[in-house]
Amino acid sequence: MGFDLKSARHWAEELLRQAVTEGSKVIDATLGNGYDTEWLCGLVGDEGHVYGFDVQQEAVDRTNERLVNAGIDHRATLFCTGHQNVKEYVHEKVDAAVFNLGWLPGTDKNIRTMRETTLQAVEGCLELLKEGGLLTICAYPGHEEGKEELNALIEWAKGLDSKKYDAMIRGYLNQPNDPPVMFAVKKNLRKGSRK
Ligand SMILES: C[S@@+](CC[C@H](N)C(=O)[O-])C[C@H]1O[C@@H](n2cnc3c(N)ncnc32)[C@H](O)[C@@H]1O
């Protein structure tokens, strides 16, 4: 009554609101239309920074335009390159890294995130995370490659050292068309602080 169980994107945002505050440094690993980047730039404020990645110039341009219109483009640096190269471009520790997998709506579906490069990118981002930092992933198992990407991420997350990381997955079990799934990985949780 009066509520629903929400979506992968909602759950990711709920966690990110705790990890990302004024002054935070964040990686947005998949710019797309720039909705997430704009939202993150709002959270980090003028003292923080968002590093954004996308393989498509169109995504970089759409995101840049969105930030310019909002008057907050100085809070972000956008790179037109694959997120698997993240460590070549980001040279400081970050509070959070955000992945929203798949393709840019309205463009070629073949230009999408791929299992191998996604795994390289999440590994790179984990290395860049501060202690206490958060990595979130929204994965889309509604198509075959997305399912494979999700399964690879599950195996990857299961293998993370439980002394260094807490890894969780959240998604619907009985809905049609395999709705998106949310992953969260937190670095170095202080044991005993879980509620
Ligand atoms: C679902 S969209 C992201 C949505 C976006 N976060 C937003 O708020 O609009 C996924 C994006 O990932 C990008 N992408 C695909 N492969 C990539 C890679 N290796 N590195 C970075 N971005 C990639 C696609 O070009 C696409 O724009």
Describe the structure.
By secondary structure, this protein is α/β, with parallel strands linked by helices. It has a single domain (8-187), classed as 3-Layer(aba) Sandwich (Rossmann fold). It is 35% helix and 24% strand. It has six helices and seven strands; from the N terminus they run H-E-H-E-H-E-H-E-H-E-H-E-E. The chain has helices spanning 8-19, 35-44, 57-70, 86-89, 115-128, 144-158, and strands spanning 25-28, 49-54, 76-80, 94-100, 129-139, 165-170, 181-187. Helix 2 packs across helix 3 and helix 5 (115-128) packs parallel to helix 6. The longest helix is centred in the last third of the chain and has 15 residues, at 144-158. The protein is globular. The site of S-adenosylmethionine (SAM) has 24 residues, from helix 2 and strand 2.
**Heterogens:** S-adenosylmethionine
**Which structural class do you get from the secondary structure elements?**
alpha/beta
Number of helices: 6
- Highest CATH level, the class: Alpha Beta
- Weakly predicted, low-confidence segments: none
Kindly provide the radius of gyration, computed on alpha-carbon positions and rounded to a whole number of angstroms.
Answer: 16 Å
Taking the sheet with the most strands, its summary is: 7 strands, mixed
Mean of the pLDDT scores? 95
Can you identify the CATH superfamily? Vaccinia Virus protein VP39
The CATH architecture designation is 3-Layer(aba) Sandwich
β content, as a range?
15-25%
The backbone outline, from C-alpha atoms, is globular
What is the end-to-end distance?
Answer: 25 Å
Instruction: Provide the helix percentage.
Output: 25-40%
